Amino acid sequence: MSVCELISCVDTAWLRMDRPNNLMQIVGVLMFDGQLDETRLRESLLHTIRVQPRFAQKACLEGGEYYWRTDPDFDLDLHLKRVILPGKAGKAELERLVADFASTPLNHQRPLWEMHLVDTSLGGQALVVRFHHAMGDGFSLVRAMLTMMDESPVAAPRPQPEPVANDDGDEEHDQQGSRLLRAGLKLTGTLWSKYVEVLTHPTKAMDYLKTSRDVTAELYTIATLSDD
């Protein structure tokens, strides 16, 4: 059954801010020891899609407004792909692959996410994930990823459905806050360390500002967008 939902003003802004040289997408790399069980990975993704319907919806512009609509032609094979790195398949080759993905727009004719299972020579496989920021904020996407993962090697019962949306401080968010915060800090350790460095060494802020002059142009772009 097709589902239609008006996209929030905040997430509409993410969609409209997309630029070829400044893509509104989140890119992450998960490293694993050894080989993943691809059958189990697919099953976990299908479970995530069942409990997080956003993963099977695409953003449609209709009458000047964006809506989430269920993709009637959704095909997991278009979102989960296998990649074999060239050459030594080491860290440098993986970094180049991730850089290419980070500068490549997601296909707006399909749900706005992709995962690439990558064979490497680093002792195991990597899973490169890409999500459009309109799908959710950092915490909600961490929560969505957690629906794919077990806390131990023994598979646990699957969790109940939880919506993918920007969190508004509801009771459920409070109950899971510290677990998500721990996961979030692990995923964003570099950014956190930069933040702490600025707090303890304020002069560092100027160094970071010098490398971020393009932010002014982006703020101007945001200021000239419509109300959302």
Overall average residue pLDDT: 77
Count all strands and give the number: 7
In percent, how much strand structure appears in the residues?
A: 15-25%
Order of helical and strand elements = EHEHEEEHEEHHHHH
Helix-strand makeup class: alpha+beta
Helical stretch count? 8
Write the layout of secondary structure elements.
Blueprint lengths: L3 E3 L2 H9 L7 E7 L6 H14 L5 E6 L2 E6 L9 E5 L6 H12 L10 E7 L5 E8 L5 H9 L24 H17 L1 H12 L3 H7 L3 H10 L5
Parallel strand pairs: 5-6
Antiparallel strand pairs: 1-4, 2-7, 3-4, 6-7
Helix pairs in contact: 4-5
Characterize the structure shown.
By secondary structure, this protein is an alpha+beta fold. 39% of the residues lie in helices and 18% in strands. The chain contains eight helices and seven strands, in the order βαβαβββαββααααα. The chain has a four-stranded mixed sheet, with helices on one face. It has a three-stranded antiparallel sheet with strand order 1-4-3, with no helix packed on it. Helix 4 (138-146) packs across helix 5. It is globular. The model is unreliable at 161-165 and 167-196 (pLDDT under 50).
